[in-house]
Amino acid sequence: MVRVGILGASGYGGGELIRLLKRHPEVSLVGFSSRRHTGRPLYEVWPQLLDERLFRPQEEVVAEAEVVILALPNGIAMELAPGLLEAGKRVVDLSGDFRLPPEVYEAWYGLPHKSPALYREAVYGLPELFRAEIPGARLVANPGCYVTAATLALAPLAAEGLLEEAFLAGMSGVSGAGREAEETFFAELNENLRPYKPGGTHRHTPEMELNLARLKAQGRWPRTHGPKEEVRLSFIPHLVPMTRGILVSAFVRLREDLSEMRLEALYRSFYQDEPFVSFTRALPQTKGAYASNRVWVSLRKDERAGLVQVFAALDNLGKGMAGQAVQNLNLMLGFPEGLALDREGVWP
């Protein structure tokens, strides 16, 4: 049994991590921390989990764990990771701290990067593209929900050099905003749908571009720190009055005119061996991925406008966060990739 601890377990992603790891047959969940809830039993913070264990101080959790999962706000992991690695721990980080080159991170997150050297060691944790790098990694940067959906929607096109330009609209359930965000207030959400971070200002935009730039330069199986070619996207997110789920709709202009049949064949070949990506003719729905680690991808060709429409749906707390972290954990430790994860969702 591998001893795993979670820091930041009172957020939505932390709660989902606990639910998944409690049933993991190869993991001993040795502890979970929260600065706000230290000393309180788990079931008081997460009533769906029948567990009387207490939230413990961060130092106690770290001392007992072999692998530490950081479900903390941006800016904290870069301070903790060096000490954790020096102590022989392995780390999965759910924040944005190690996903981007330090200079890009600083420009988009508005924070000075305190561990820039560690970025060169971090492996990007999107298994469908970077699977070969994850086993044995000490530090994995776990992608977020919008980026996972957008990258997997466009990856086959970028890897084949077909991506000319793309415009993306993302729709997110409110758990993606975090447990403390004002956006989760009922009065702000009910009977309301709104865009936010317009004009190319959303901080996940450069991460999407970086992933596709890697694919454009390196092909099907890119390396985190390998070469890249420039890609520019236009992305606008929207907040939807539902608890969990992500749907990304991409409108793509191709470098080469391909039929819808050939495009579907490309996607089916690209994802045919991926256990958590379903490419189908049916159009994605967020309920189809609810509480699972599944990504549901589909496409249509708009002959009249000369565009390809690509759609991807996932659960932002599953494949978009905690589920993907467990998938990365399994790969890091040599376990079957799907251990403790669901390919099928539940009807909420």
From TrEMBL:
Keyword annotations from UniProtKB, A to Z: Amino-acid biosynthesis, Arginine biosynthesis, Cytoplasm, NADP, Oxidoreductase
Active-site residues (renumbered): 145
Keyword Cytoplasm part of the UniProt annotation: yes
Subcellular locations according to the entry: Cytoplasm
Gene Ontology CC: cytoplasm
UniProt domain Semialdehyde dehydrogenase NAD-binding: residue ranges: 3-137
Keyword NADP: yes
Annotated metabolic or biological route of this protein: Amino-acid biosynthesis; L-arginine biosynthesis; N(2)-acetyl-L-ornithine from L-glutamate: step 3/4
Gene Ontology terms, MF aspect: N-acetyl-gamma-glutamyl-phosphate reductase activity; NAD binding; NADP+ binding
PROSITE patterns in the record: ARGC (PS01224)
Biological process (GO), any one: L-arginine biosynthetic process
EC number in record: 1.2.1.38
Enzyme class: oxidoreductase
Alphabetized HAMAP family for the sequence: ArgC_type1
PANTHER family: N-ACETYL-GAMMA-GLUTAMYL-PHOSPHATE REDUCTASE, CHLOROPLASTIC-RELATED, N-ACETYL-GAMMA-GLUTAMYL-PHOSPHATE REDUCTASE, CHLOROPLASTIC-RELATED-RELATED
Chain's role: Catalyzes the NADPH-dependent reduction of N-acetyl-5-glutamyl phosphate to yield N-acetyl-L-glutamate 5-semialdehyde.
Similarity comment: family membership: Belongs to the NAGSA dehydrogenase family. Type 1 subfamily.
Descriptive protein name: N-acetyl-gamma-glutamyl-phosphate reductase
Source organism: Thermus filiformis
